[in-house]
Amino acid sequence: MTTPLLEIEELHAKVGDKEIIKNFNLTINEGEIHAIMGPNGAGKSTLSYVLTGKPGYEVTSGSVRFKGKDLLSLSPEERAREGMFLIMQYPVEIPGVPTSAFLKQALNAQRKHLNLPELDNVSFIKLLREEGKKLGIDSDMLKRFVNVGFSGGEKKRLETLQMAILKPSFAILDEADSGLDIDALKVVADGVNSLRDEHRAMLVITHYQRLLNYIVPDFVHVFADGHIVKSGNKDLALELEEKGYAEFVKER
Amino acid sequence: MSTKDQPQIIDESGDKYKYGFVTDIDADTAPMGLNAEIIKLISAKKQEPQWLLEWRLKAFEFWQTMTEPTWAKLSYDKIDYQSLYYYSAPKQKVAPKSLNEVDSELLKTYEKLGIPLKEQEALAGVVAVDAVFDSVSVATTYRAKLAEQGVIFCSISEAVREHPDLVQKYLGSVVPYTDNFFACLNSAVFTDGSFVYIPKGVKCPMELSTYFRINAKNTGQFERTLIIAEDDSYVSYLEGCTAPQRDENQLHAAIVEIVVLNNAEVKYSTVQNWYPGDKDGKGGVYNFVTKRAACRGVNSKISWTQVETGSAVTWKYPSCVLQGDNSVGEFYSVAITNNHQQADTGTKMIHIGKNTSSKIISKGISAGFSNQTYRGLVRVSPKASGARNYSQCDSLLIGKNCGSHTVPYIENRNKTAVLEHEATTSKISDEQLFYCLQRGISEEDAVSLIVNGFCKEVMQHLPMEFAIEAAKLINISLEGSVG
Question: Is B442 in contact with A95 (Cβ distance < 8 A)?
Answer without folding.
Answer: no
